[in-house]
């Protein structure tokens, strides 16, 4: 069983009154098997028609989406989701995660999930909490792996699943998951594929270039790390490699690329003195790791863009 679902708390499901109207935009089929047309979003102050969804029921009840590029799958699924900014919210260190249902989608409407994209590990419990007393919403996984039932209006209804299989779970609201973009995504990773160091996994969980594995540089006396390396979004705001495993006594040499503006290396908890904040491509900064442990660092200017790195000394 991929996901175990818990029942509703705080509100009953009766009286959903959701009123079907337009169709879902992602080519879902009706009972007759005919794709339906995509509705246009209404103008402000005009009542929004609710979107007809295909009937509930699993099409692949045993496995979540198995994709080669989970981030791309999430980006594609959420391409019309107003409150998705391209970042996947790392929740790797959490065993319980809450997601609001019917929250502000950044346009003043309540057609969004509170965390549109998250990354968790197997066994994490996900709880959706309804927050919109005016519009009927539900949660339905694209392949029918889990679902909260018919859309309801509520403040307080909850729906809970425990995700036990790794993969990409793509879900939406049946009423508003088409043209209005009320969608969500969950990337579930198997715990044993992660680094084995929860501090590192949590620190780098929002890094699309971090795959949960440390770059093994043990046996080397000196290791270079590029500062201002190119990141997947095309900006030079990353460290490369982003997470490394080294031996005691290894010297870490940070080498500036000269791209992406000024950069620095600042250590969490002030473990070492920080570097200068410069752009100069000839600038280098080094530290020697004499004690075993987990060392986390960041660029002060790039930290809002996930400019972070980690060193594990064994």
TrEMBL record:
It comes from the Archaea. The keyword Repeat does not apply. The keyword Protein biosynthesis does not apply. GO terms for molecular function: copper ion binding; electron transfer activity. InterPro entries: BlueCu_1 (IPR000923), Cupredoxin (IPR008972), ET_Amicyanin (IPR052721), Halocyanin (IPR017533). Residues 1-69 are annotated as: Disordered. Residues 106-189 form the Blue (type 1) copper domain. Residues 21-31, 40-65 have a biased composition (Acidic residues). This is Halocyanin domain-containing protein. It comes from Halorientalis regularis.
